[in-house]
Amino acid sequence: MLLKELSALASPLNDQQIGQLQQAVAELSPQQLAWISGYFWGLSQTQSVGQQPAGQPVAAVAAKPAGKLTIIYASQTGNAKGVAQALKDEAVAAGIQADVFAAGDYKGKNLTKETHVVIVASTHGEGEAPDDAIELHEFLQSKRAPKLPNLNYAVLGLGDSSYEFFCQTAKDFDSYLSKLGAKPFVDRIDCDVDYDAPAAEWRAKALETIKDELQGGGDAEVVQLPVGQSAPAAVSQFNKQNPYSAELLLSQKITGRDSGKDVRHVEIDLGESGLTYQPGDALGVWYDNDPALAEALAAKVGLTGEESVEVEGATLSLKDALVSKYEITAANPQLVTKFAELSGSKKLQKLVEDKDKLREYAANTQVIDVFAEKKTQLTTEQLQGLLRRLTPRLYSIASSQEEVGEEVHLTVGLVEYQQGEESRFGGASGYLAHRLEEGANVRVFVEGNNNFKLPADDQTPVIMIGPGTGIAPFRAFIQERDNRDADGKNWLFFGDRTFTDDFLYQVEWQKYLKDGVLTRLDVAFSRDQQEKVYVQHRILENAAEVWQWLQEGAHLYVCGDANRMAKDVHEALITVAEQQGGKSREDAEQYLNDLRKAKRYQKDVY
Known about the structure:
This protein is α/β, with parallel strands linked by helices. Helix 11 crosses helix 12 and helix 22 packs across helix 23. It is an enzyme of class 1 (oxidoreductase). It comes from Photobacterium galatheae. This is Sulfite reductase [NADPH] flavoprotein alpha-component.
């Protein structure tokens, strides 16, 4: 269409040349067309092209065409995707042509055609590749993987050092590519939860290393839209780096008075933000720490809180920095290890020698209680060096926008326990439950999760397993299916401690069941009888029906605790495949792995 429009204008090309050009570019992608535009412009700048005598062949290419950077992200919740997109934007700004692919959309055999590849990889569960990256991960370690002697690559890992298999997927990709003969053009780094600064530094280093080889194609990203084609719809300007200041409409306790847990139903007004979300997405919440805890933490290491410190080039008081810039609730293995060195605590030094015990201690001890292990005077620089930067908490969204409009709902379990005579609260959950008043503002953004989504076909049955606050996304799923008048069957497994005090959204589930939106509801309340009963037990009790649903094409979803529940549910599903499908243990595991690859077995675990 564009060439036809051009042919009507004054042009140095005759009709035959325009026809030849149309035929030549008919099957090219927008990126290829953009590259060719830059290539032809380069030819136009060489004197020899325009000065060739008539009838003689045009000289060969005057300069070697610029190469291309291919960026692949393996992302479970969106962090790796964000880093990959930032790298692409920076590459284009530097004059380097770059393409970005989700790992699930990239064919491993195409690596033989690449010269420079960057993989940004998150790690899922127990060192597993994210769902979208399973096939590429398996391909690179298989006998089908090609040798890659001409490939230059780099890997950036994202993870949480509190977990045993920190950045394992990134380590795997680095190892696999190296064994296939590819050469790293910059060393891999493994980023912790506060990854923004080290990731940005690594991206700059990577681009600096390859710019001389690849510069020249970056401007090709700008492609003129054909006549009559509109630009894509505008998206919200608000994101992780630029969160929206939203009004807290409601923070209501939904567990009973005798419950041992405080779970809140939270409603937030997205107003005029333009933020949209889909069931399965998460809401990122930036929070402030408790000022009283900040003062206590400073005092614990011999500081007043009034000292001046510098954070990101800004000068502020230590107390203010502890409130808004640093993680001061949850400990981590690195903090414990560093404090053991500074304090000389024999207890902590012994813990450091046992990685399993160290992780367990860090996961169950807050920062101030680590500092209480041995009285130690610290400088402000030492204290800042111990603490991670504050990062937002991600909560599974508990509503469908089709149902609630410009609101977003969350199901928040308050982290709360006693430490001696003092109460300890979670940073974000304490903020939402206690410190933030209704009507006040909270900074939020939407974090998309393409690996936890309802099936596109509304007739597909779904099985949802979500004990405790893991129920959140399934409330969104059911609201969405209800509003779409989806015909597919819906089966929910829910579990908690007691029916009376812990049946989250009980009235809603019973209404959906009565109306036929929810086809089946199986519950497990562990403390309502002498023998503990959990959701995995209900799955096994209904093994024949679960297997039948899976044979009918059902999609399977699990949300909640990763350490115990998700593992127990996975084991129950393996047993179902063994007993009902007549499979060996190995075949049952492969069956579930195949479901994951087909996006029929999705997890949102934490």
